[in-house]
Write a structure and sequence with these properties.
Elements lengths: L1 H44 L9 E6 L2 E10 L6 E9 L9 E4 L20 H6 E4 L3 H7 L2 H14 L2 E4 L2 E6 L6 H23 L10 H12 L2 E3 L4 E6 L2 E10 L2 E9 L9 E4 L18 H6 E4 L3 H7 L2 H10 L4 E5 L2 E7 L3 H26 L1
Antiparallel strand pairs: 1-2, 2-3, 3-7, 4-5, 4-6, 6-7, 8-9, 9-10, 10-11, 11-15, 12-13, 12-14, 14-15
Helix pairs in contact: 1-5, 4-5, 9-10
Length: 370
């Protein structure tokens, strides 16, 4: 018995360190596999490769993509989760919340809007769907949308659709390029058919008066009115511009997107100073010795000197003015301001100020190349 006990102790003594080594090696292998998959799919999409190997992120057209880990929740519920998130080209503006039945309330608050009954019995069993006006959402949930939604949820299970984004919750980071590409393709497929279906549906009743309110602004700035969102879209001074509504907790607000034709290649990110340093944010803050501006924004980029040259005094003053009525984000190709009040005068002023910012950028770029 003493010999057997000694032998058992020896085996345990050998097995424990081997198990520890195995777990360390396995974890390291997973991290390398994840980084390799992220890098390969980033290159396929023409996105910058995350040198830390912890995310796949960037803009593909007008849609912002993120796949990686993110800290969610507050207090004792704060924890790390892995998400795949793709912003819609434009918010649906319908107060949509679609999620798997039973998905943790710690992640999403209980919806207050009416529940929508789905025509597909299998999806109805799997999903909880809410919208401000169920009749409008039913028009958006075409056969193509339901088929794309079913493919995604049967493959990944924890799918969430909101007015602004399609999101998939993952148990852990994906380690193969094929799985990651499958996830990205599924997100883009669903987001694409949702946008097409929404573009063919009239706006909800609360937004219908805005077709008339946006018309004089569009005429003044030579922008077209899209009556189905309703939205303004077109070109100003060689820049592509969109102004469209989005649903917030207090009703509808508006968002402005101002796109440059070329990528500046500076790795530029300008975000509100008080915003949480969330999953879009990497790098160090660049200071300008401009109290009002530095207090308002966090600025990041590859080359601080080049970023300071672009954000000269005129550009900084324009950015400070633009933040008055909404939440501003700026990168190498786009300016986006969300949460603009549903006020025609404020929307017009914001467009004029964005035009002044674009002029300041164009002047700074011209002086830099002369």
């Amino acid at each position: 018995m003493d010999v057997l006990s000694s032998f058992a102790c020896l085996l345990v003594g050998v097995a424990l360190p081997l198990a520890a080594v195995f777990l360390v090696v396995r974890r390291g292998w997973r991290q390398l596999a994840v980084a390799d998959a992220y890098g390969e799919v980033s290159r396929r999409l023409g996105l910058p490769v995350d040198t830390r190997g912890v995310s796949l992120h960037g803009h593909v057209g007008d849609r912002r993509l993120w796949v990686g880990e993110v800290m969610v929740g507050h207090g004792p519920d704060r924890r790390m989760m892995c998400w795949g998130v793709l912003d819609l080209e434009r918010p649906l503006g319908l107060g949509v919340l679609l999620r798997r039945r039973g998905l943790s309330e710690r992640v999403f608050r209980r919806a207050r809007s009416p529940e929508v009954i789905l025509a597909d019995p299998e999806l109805e069993r799997l999903l909880e769907v809410h919208a401000d006006e169920p009749s409008h959402l039913r028009e958006v949930l075409t056969d193509d949308v339901l088929a794309s939604l079913k493919r995604l949820i049967l493959r990944w299970r924890d799918v969430v659709v909101t007015d602004r984004a399609v999101r998939v919750h993952l148990a852990q980071p994906l380690t193969t390029t094929s799985e990651l590409q499958e996830l990205v393709d599924g997100l883009f497929q669903l987001a694409g058919v949702l946008h097409q279906a929404r573009a063919a549906v009239a706006p909800p009743s609360t937004l219908q008066p805005w077709v008339e309110r946006l018309t004089p602004i569009g005429q003044e700035l030579t922008l077209d009115v899209d009556p189905n969102w309703p939205a303004l879209a077109g070109g100003i001074d060689g820049h592509r511009v969109e102004l469209f509504p989005q649903r917030s907790s207090d009703g509808h607000t508006f968002a402005l997107r101002w796109m440059d034709a070329t990528d500046r290649g500076l790795g530029l990110q300008v975000r509100p100073q008080l915003a949480p340093d969330g999953y879009w944010s990497v790098g160090q803050d660049i200071q300008f010795e401009d109290e009002a501006f530095d207090r308002a924004f966090v600025v990041k980029g590859y080359d601080p000197d080049a970023v300071r040259a672009l954000l000269d005094a005129d550009a900084r003053a324009a950015l400070v003015a633009l933040r008055e009525h909404g939440t501003l984000e700026l990168d190498d190709q786009r300016l986006e301001i969300r949460g603009l009040p549903a006020d025609a005068d404020i929307l017009r002023t914001t467009l004029v100020r964005a035009r002044a910012l674009a002029a300041a950028f164009d002047a700074a770029s011209s002086s830099g190349t002369s």
